[in-house]
């Protein structure tokens, strides 16, 4: 697979470019994708956009040459896929992804690991693994259970039913649905605006949300963490600029630095 990285105006745009295989990922492709995120972080970008070429975002693992008799499925997931998802999840800037067409398996995991996901009305999301004798992976169980509950989660898994982009947003899986022909321009515009925003404030919110997700800290611990984050931000140049711009009735000019 070809993974293309473009760096411009504080934004890293990462493209999965193997449309003939619905952007399915083998181990080399995952290594290339991880390298793209590493290069983006080293470049100090202030936002990332991940999307796929063609009619699908990512149909999951490329199993076209996998021999089940010798396949180390756990090793592939735990040593290859999970580190990539953790890298995306902890990326030091806001991350966005566009869901178009098939978003399955590892492809779904890439969406789960991203901060914001905009979904095309053409998207198909779910767990088609029943026909493979396999189970949903890459964080799919956690996402579906948290947002849909046990019954709907197992219904999707048992039946292999895929839900549309519109339904996925209605169910609270992702951010918003956008017509397929408009979604790339729509997302690029939003990512561009975020890349010129108060990056450190965004990262503070990202950490707070991750703490709620991963540690289930509850209202009062989260409120205390918010207070501490605000206190830390109050000494930053962007905080001073934001207040000055408000008081002077002008648009702020943020550097994204602490």
From TrEMBL:
Pfam families registered for this protein in UniProt: ECH_1 (PF00378)
List, alphabetically, the InterPro entries matched.
Answer: ClpP/crotonase-like_dom_sf, Enoyl-CoA_hydra/iso, Enoyl-CoA_hydra_C
Concerning its family, UniProt says: Belongs to the enoyl-CoA hydratase/isomerase family.
Protein name in the entry: Crotonase
